[in-house]
Amino acid sequence: MFQKAALLAFSLATAVYGQQVGTQMTETHPKLSWQTCTSSGCTAAANGAVTLDANWRWLHTTSGYTNCYTGNTWNSSICTDGKSCAANCALDGADYSGTYGVTTSGNALTMKFVTTGANKNIGARVYLMADDTHYQQFKLLNKEFTFDVDVSNLPCGLNGALYFSEMDADGGLAKYSTNKAGAKYGTGYCDSQCPRDIKFINGEANSVGWTASPNDTNAGTGQYGSCCNELDVWEANSISAAYTPHPCTVNGQTRCQGDDCAITSRYSGVCDPDGCDFNSYRQGDTSFYGPGLTVDTKKPFTVVTQFLTDNNSTTGTLTEIRRLYVQNGKVIQNSKSKIAGMSAYDSITGAYCDDQKAAFGDTTSFQNHGGLKTIGQSMGRGMTLVLSVWDDHAVNMLWLDSTYPTTSDPTKPGIARGTCSTSSGAPTDVETANANASVIYSNIKFGDIGSTFSSTGTTSPTSPGGGSSTTTTTAPQTTQTKYGQW
Ligand SMILES: *[C@@H]1O[C@H](CO)[C@@H](O)[C@H](O)[C@H]1NC(C)=O
Ligand SMILES: *[C@@H]1O[C@H](CO)[C@@H](O)[C@H](O)[C@H]1NC(C)=O
Ligand SMILES: *[C@@H]1O[C@H](CO)[C@@H](O)[C@H](O)[C@H]1NC(C)=O
Ligand SMILES: *[C@@H]1O[C@H](CO)[C@@H](O)[C@H](O)[C@H]1NC(C)=O
Ligand SMILES: *[C@@H]1O[C@H](CO)[C@@H](O)[C@H](O)[C@H]1NC(C)=O
Predict the structure, then answer these.
(1) Residue 72 in contact with ligand 4 by CB distance below 6 A
(2) What is the pLDDT of residue 405?
(3) What residues have CB less than 8 Å from 198, skipping those under 6 apart?
(4) Ligand closest to the CA atom of residue 63
(5) Which pLDDT tens digit goes with each residue over 51-64?
(6) Could you give the residue numbers annotated as active site?
(7) Would the pLDDT of 477 be above 60?
(8) Which of 307, 310, 311 to mutate to test the pocket of ligand 3 (most atoms within 8 A of CB)?
(9) Sequence-separated (6 or more) residues with CB below 8 Å from residue 125
(10) 86-131 pLDDT, tens per residue?
(11) What is the pLDDT of residues 418-456, one digit of tens each?
């Protein structure tokens, strides 16, 4: 579960340097405005923009336009080994809207699921930039991160994800001299699944030992993976949502090989693949999140996440990740766990993770990889913001929105995660039936606790989902509220 799918697609109409840079199309990052906030208000960040991950880009010879990689296969006469492949191949600029279905307008980013241009593109992954050649790095401890999301057009099987990975700000350009493309071209991705579908890692192609996926025409896996701490703030569709920290025992983006990539066993790697998740449905509140429910996914809403430390300082130890929602001008407290053997937890703490793993009979991989303290140390070093939309070639996203494992008793705690059918989410189905799906992320704000959101203070008697008064409170008038007041 909690796997990141391979989301690879190719355009023959665009060009970029493998780890060199191509010149077929100028890379122009779509602008995306966002804000930083304090108790005295919010200000627009400079140079807000996004860049497309390198894996999606056209990879062709530096000398011409022969593909270095087509579908899920490397050209073995160009890519005889990882180093020469990096020298011979170039990543090119992206046609964001035409090829990848990625568009921005003001503070809003829309990502389409399937885009049919000259080629068919499935999903995308983009990063927020600080400038043209660096990813924006966020230090989230004792801070709050807020965004609006519209998941109304994201059905079962899809995942609109907003998360942080501990990537190098320059995409690995300085560390690896053979990487000439860098963050401008979306290099250096890593996450807690130690993905092996990444085409270039540490300035070398992952072409040696590459195995084409049996069920994904755009993906394969190489001998290396790219691991790092991952903080999933939001993985969701219109039916289910989860937030999940995933610690690793390595600091920063780290190339793995063999069992460090969890090859023989899911839990043998340097990262925690499961994480400690909070999914309201899985925690037993089945009427909180969904179409027409307390958080009504038929309309946009605001997602607030607070990263609290033991001494209320940015250098303290991470102790709690809190979640709030705002919709129709009202603050909605997170749902409370209703699981036998667990307190009515409504946030992620060390005690929540311990009790949840025990109640669900899950492994303690999260704790074994350092738990909240370790992901907190990663947050202290700085992480890159990732926004994506994907489908799941491994397990059809059932870990997020259905009964999983599918053969387990759904009345057993932790098995039911959402109302999607166990037969839903197959990529061959959703890529056809739900090709027009999309997600919109907007109004990103980052700042001091209590400074990034407010409400109109009006409570509508006809609020969606019946507006349960026990889960909905009127927000304070000012933006200076401390989290303790909620
Ligand atoms: C692989 O690259 C070689 C050398 O550039 C080229 O001649 C050949 O056509 C390519 N093969 C494919 C399948 O594109
Ligand atoms: C941190 O702030 C909260 C809310 O204001 C307060 O309840 C708590 O006592 C503070 N903790 C410390 C260690 O100062
Ligand atoms: C918070 O804790 C960290 C780590 O122990 C310490 O370095 C820092 O000085 C503390 N900050 C405050 C304001 O107490
Ligand atoms: C697709 O293939 C991968 C192996 O690359 C396998 O792990 C996965 O279970 C397959 N997915 C489905 C839905 O058959
Ligand atoms: C997707 O949208 C396009 C354009 O609006 C439309 O022509 C097409 O029929 C839609 N496809 C599906 C599967 O709904």
Answers:
(1) no
(2) 97
(3) 55, 189, 190, 206, 222, 224, 225, 226
(4) 1
(5) 999 999 999 999 99
(6) 230, 235
(7) no
(8) 311
(9) 7, 52, 53, 55, 56, 186, 189, 386, 387, 388, 390
(10) 999 999 999 999 999 999 999 999 999 999 988 899 999 999 999 9
(11) 999 999 999 999 999 999 999 999 999 999 999 999 976
Nearest Cα to Cα of residue 59 among 68, 51, 47, 50: 68
Q: In the prediction, which pLDDT does 456 show? A: 67
Amino acid at 106: G
CA of 66 to the centre of ligand 1 (A): 6
Fold exhibited by the domain 31-53+96-471? 1,4-Beta-D-Glucan Cellobiohydrolase I; Chain A (2.70.100)
357-366, long-range: CB < 8 A, 24+ apart = 357/276, 359/413, 359/414, 360/413, 360/414, 361/414, 362/274, 362/414, 363/267, 363/274, 365/267, 365/272, 365/273, 365/274, 366/245, 366/246, 366/247, 366/272, 366/274, 366/275, 366/276
Q: Distance (Å, rounded) from C-alpha 209 to C-alpha 126?
A: 27
| pTM for the full predicted model | 0.91
- How many A from CA of 410 to the centre of ligand 1? 51
State the Cα–Cα distance between residues 31 and 108, nearest whole angstrom: 9
- DSSP state for residue 191 in the 8-state scheme: B
Ligand 5 atom 10, closest CA: 436
What would the pLDDT profile of 302-355 be if each residue is shown by its tens digit? 999 999 999 999 999 999 999 999 999 999 999 999 999 999 999 999 999 999
* Buried/exposed code over 435-474 (b: 16+ C-beta within 10 A; e: otherwise): eebbbbbbbbbbbbbbbbbbbeeeeeeebbbebeeebbbe
Most informative mutation of 1, 216, 392, 393 for ligand 4 (most atoms within 8 A of CB): 393
| Whole-number average pLDDT of the chain | 91
CA dist., res. 453 & res. 37, Å (int): 9
Domain boundaries, the chain: 31-53+96-471
Using DSSP's 3-state secondary structure scheme, residue 222 falls into coil
The proportion of the chain whose per-residue pLDDT surpasses 90, expressed as a percent, equals 87
408 lines ligand 2 (CB under 6 A): no
Are 88 and 18 contacting, i.e. CB atoms less than 8 angstroms apart? yes
